[in-house]
Amino acid sequence: xxxxxxxxxxxxxxxxxxxxxxxxxxxxxxxxxxxxxxxxxxxxxxxxxxxxxxxxxxxxxxxxxxxxxxxxxxxxxxxxxxxxxxxxxxxxxxxxxxxxxxxxxxxxxxxxxxxxxxxxxxxxxxxxxxxxxxxxxxxxxxxxxxxxxxxxxxxxxxxxxxxxxxxxxxxxxxxxxxxxxxxxxxxxxxxxxxxxxxxxxxxxxxxxxxxxxxxxxxxxxxxxxxxxxxxxxxxxxxxxxxxxxxxxxxxxxxxxxxxxxxxxxxxxxxxxxxxxxxxxxxxxxxxxxxxxxxxxxxxxxxxxxxxxxxxxxxxxxxxxxxxxxxxxxxxxxxxxxxxxxxxxxxxxxxxxxxxxxxxxxxxxxxxxxxxxxxxxxxxxxxxxxxxxxxxxxxxxxxxxxxxxxxxxxxxxxxxxxxxxxxxxxxxxxxxxxxxxxxxxxxxxxxxxxxxxxxxxxxxxxxxxxxxxxxxxxxxxxxxxxxxxxxxxxxxxxxxxxxxxxxxxxxxxxxxxxxxxxxxxxxxxxxxxxxxxxxxxxxxxxxxxxxxxxxxxxxxxxxxxxxxxxxxxxxxxxxxxxxxxxxxxxxxxxxxxxxx
Length: 595
Ligand code: HAS
Ligand code: CU
Prior knowledge:
This protein is about 65% helix and about 5% strand. Helix 2 packs antiparallel against helix 3. It has one domain (about 15-595): Cytochrome C Oxidase, Chain A (Up-down Bundle), CATH 1.20.210.10. It is mostly helical. One of its GO terms (molecular function) is heme binding.
């Protein structure tokens, strides 16, 4: 491709990702489109919910609300995020190792497995809208179990099979990244693991550790139970297995966003990553600590002794550290960039950042929102304050800042850079992209802030009828209807933003191929891998410690849950209500007490 630059003609080859890795680009593109389709459907359902809950506009029967809520949660929190993640991680590994995957058929096969899993899950959930859901395997297709799907809610077996396929697909994706790295390592025995690959591998390792919990929950308990092979399960056990996985999964969503903040934001800001060693420390800390704290979602569950909850809280507070380190490193890198661009003063440098670039602006705003999300997370994590906010709309506000903005907005902003890399086509419209990321930030400010406030006066989450007949909520500041209006308004703005994003992606795909796509590169470092202690790259060591920490945090609580409630539950007759893990409290003994 000859490019004319002024009077001298230079021959420059376009060096986008598609030029370097045409076959891998196809899989990544497919993964991104799977992710965008989930985003489109899940996002639209979000608007339906926002309008229903706030009673601004209702056309659903209330039972259908739970079908919508399940679809919204599964499609956005699981499908949208993880499809994007597998795409971006495949990009990161191949780009930073400068080599393709070992066998592209293997890559397509895990992607295909994830698609089949998603379709099975989707069919069972959406059948919930049918008056007469078809019977399959002797049970009507249905899965109104919300995205946390733990007992006592039960889904059709096909839902669980779909989940298994999806997770196994993600495991094989991890195998793919490891294989690529092993192949590279045999050619580069003395080199440090390039930072993006390091981030992918550490994240994959904690994904293996945490998904073990959900795999056991599904394969040993929920699936046999839904098939009628076992009569009952121990709900507290399946909940605990879920949350063993359910906290780490939030970092699985977050790590690709962090990766982009570390390796793209400094470059977009015009500078370099402040510290490669600190970035490695952060990812090692996530590997160590992402799993042994899931019990912080169960502070209010009876049947788990307070001491175990306290340990989970302590671990959670330690896990703030890598995010605080990230805030420092990423902002320091941005400041470095801004100063390279002529920025001056204590805060004046902020003006020198490239605020007209939607890729930058989207990611920076996502980071800013995450700072607020961190505060609501710290409040959730305090055992005592959690009692105030648990199961209220506060928590929903929290996770719309985290996964709904820090992650989703980063992914959308990154897509404005990625789609041209993957297709060789220029972004359709940068101004629309710029408006889109701003609208997301504004819409989420309205919605999430109002949700946090409503949680403080006890507005429950996960209910179609939050008003409770005859019960009046009394906010300390403002009115319920003002809060509802803000949520509905936020929901509408977010939907407009989503539509603009999707339009830009579709139109970009129809654009003509262009020669002026930026090179596929990421940020240099000020302090590089040579400054990182070699031990940081010892993945076996960190994985070993991570497993030990999990054993410490979970063995005793799990043992006492099984001891008190039985592995498969004791059945209703001998049912033991787990109060303070006291195995002597049974239905019979309660009957005696009540008379
Ligand atoms: Fe959470 C509940 C605690 C982070 C997601 N969380 C949830 C649920 C979800 C979720 C989905 O301890 C609900 C689950 C359900 O359905 O029941 N969470 C935390 C804590 C953190 C945290 C301590 N959560 C996340 C992330 C999520 C996520 C990340 C998704 C991606 N969360 C909890 C607890 C509960 C909970 C309890 C249970 C509540 C209950 O009662 O049910 C921490 O990881 C947060 C640390 C973050 C920080 C912020 C650092 C700031 C940074 C920004 C840098 C700025 C930049 C931009 C780059 C300390 C890194 C600068 C820009 C310029 C212009 C300069
Ligand atoms: Cu958590």
